[in-house]
Design a protein that fits this description.
This protein has one domain: Nucleotidyltransferase, domain 5 (2-Layer Sandwich), CATH 3.30.420.10. The chain is 34% helix and 18% strand. Helix 2 runs antiparallel to helix 3. The longest helix has 20 residues. The radius of gyration is 19 Å and the shape is globular. It starts with 17 loop residues before the first helix and ends in a 7-residue tail after the last strand.
Length: 311
């Protein structure tokens, strides 16, 4: 569902800038200690595709490492002369190697255990049944809620005495203040639910806010990964130039960058399949421990439409 970009007169909390996020914990990384807090940067893509839709992505990073991770990724951007916002839509043949360098730096943080990435999407062939008009109107937020609640495996978060603070930073949400307020209320109730209560998550109203992608390099890296997955799953790498039997340079460059990203993911998980939910052979707790996971969201009730498949 593509939500209308609407603003009401109600004021929203000002989005934190780089300095505020960096100040979460300005101390050296200590991977041996349990984090006191985590930040989840969230993004979504409202654009539909022929085969897959409702793409949501998130990056979770510990408070002890967020500053150093941000500094390293920004240093990579600077070294590559990427002075503006890095995003999937900007990938071209000219900038391919620059974006590859940023992707390598980002996945180095995953390999080091500093950040984790989650991507959720829905297969269009699984057409939901029994949805009410309200369900359809709030589909964007209901899916976002499921993504936050389940994709990161928060219920398997190691228990820490005194609890663990959680911050949720969303890329600008394209909808009304009224609906966003409702969404925030449901998110604030999450730690009180029976599934997450044992994890001791601490989530306050001021820790749920919208931010600008240009201020956060982690959101920019997430945009690139999310865009690449949506690009490949919907076969946009096969799109040819109008009236010609060949693909454009930008399409070929994006496919090349997607292949770089897939290779990085498969360094973590050999044989990784982008179109299905990542397996949990080592047990459900890996939903928290895995560095990278996909979740192909399946409606509770659906009709399978073979006309919307690739075969």
């Amino acid at each position: 569902m593509t939500a209308a970009k609407t603003r009401t007169s109600a004021k929203r909390r000002a989005a934190p800038g780089v300095s505020e996020v960096a100040a979460v914990r300005e101390r050296p990384a200590d991977q041996g200690a349990q984090e006191k807090e985590y930040v989840i940067f969230c993004d979504e893509s409202a654009a539909g595709g022929k085969y897959y839709c409702n793409f949501y992505g998130g990056v979770i990073v510990g408070g002890s490492v967020i500053l150093k991770v941000t500094e390293r990724l920004n240093a990579t951007k600077l070294a590559q002369n990427l002075f503006g916002v890095a995003k999937w839509d900007k990938v071209t043949e000219q900038y391919l190697e620059k974006y590859r360098a940023l992707v390598h730096a980002f996945f180095a943080e995953l390999s080091a255990g500093n950040v984790k990435v989650r991507v959720m999407f829905r297969q269009k062939a699984q057409r939901p049944r029994g949805l009410t008009s309200e369900d359809l109107e709030l589909q964007y937020f209901k899916l976002y809620y499921q993504f936050i609640k389940n994709a990161f495996g928060l219920k398997y978060l190691p228990i820490r005495e005194g609890g663990t603070r959680l911050r949720l930073y969303f890329d600008r949400i394209p909808d009304t203040d009224e609906k966003i307020a409702m969404f925030r209320a449901f998110l604030l109730a999450l730690p009180k639910g029976k599934e997450l209560a044992r994890a001791g998550i601490l989530l306050s109203p001021e820790d749920i806010t919208e931010v600008e992608t240009r201020d956060h390099v982690l959101l920019q890296c997430l945009d690139i990964v999310l865009g690449a997955m949506q690009f490949r799953l919907n076969d946009w790498h096969k799109v040819k130039l109008p009236g010609r039997n060949m693909r454009g340079k930008r399409t070929r460059a994006k496919e090349a960058l997607y292949k770089t990203i897939l290779a990085e993911v498969r360094q973590l998980y050999p044989g990784f399949n982008i179109g299905i939910t990542t397996g949990s052979q080592s047990g459900p707790a890996c939903r928290w421990t895995h560095a990278y996971r996909h979740w192909c969201f399946q409606p509770r009730e659906f009709v399978f439409d073979r006309n919307l498949t690739k075969r």
